[in-house]
Amino acid sequence: MKIGIFGGCFNPPHVMHYGVANSILEQGYLDKVIFVPTGDNYDKKDLASHKDRVEMLNIMVDKVDMLVSDICKNGEYPYTYQVLDYYKNEYPEAEIYFICGTDNLDWFKEWRNYEYMLDNYKLLVVSRNDDNIPKIMENYKGYETSIEFATINPRVLSSTIVREHIKGNAEEKLEGLIDKKVLEYIRIKGLYKS
To answer: Per the domain annotation, does 186 fall within a domain?
Structure first.
């Protein structure tokens, strides 16, 4: 079994996050995707609580081969390698992948214990047509077999854009960008307004 760990803030989760996970599963790159939102101690402006981000992911995720994790809820596992180790212990027979975009791969060498991760796990990198993969891969000589690429043509969208539309009371611009039930949760909780 191949399990992908999809880490991020998910602040809020939106259609691109879901689309990436769904496409990876439908195209057979992985058998299961686990969303792992960062903890509350992550240094990011306008970060909704970990509890709210987990709840929004649970609202959005609707497939048995997609799971939502709350292992970072109390500030545990602040580093990606710790999250990967946790899931290797949970699924010792599985191949564990970390899902990221080519933008993350470009600076992955700066992550804590990146060599350890490449020695013990695999990266599944979501690439776009305009990415210069050969240039990026020059930084990872000897690790070519640890890095796989998934070409799924994801829609380019950021949580920042979603938050800006919410702050600016421009919710009509959110049509098709965010799950309606997630948007309703944001409204009820008053998230991203201040």
So the answer is: no
Residue 146 near residue 100 (C-beta atoms within 8 A): no
Phi, psi dihedrals of residue 164, rounded to the nearest 5°: -65, -40
Q: What pTM value is reported for the model?
A: 0.92
Tell me, what CATH number does 75's domain have?
3.40.50.620
Q: What pLDDT does 156 receive? A: 63
Q: Which residues are CB-neighbours of 106 under 8 A, at least 6 positions away?
A: 136
What 3-state DSSP class applies to 160? helix
Q: Are 53 and 12 in contact (CB under 8 A)?
A: yes
Domain that holds residue 102: 2-155
Domain count, the chain: 1
Q: Is 126 helix (H, G, I), strand (E, B) or coil?
A: strand
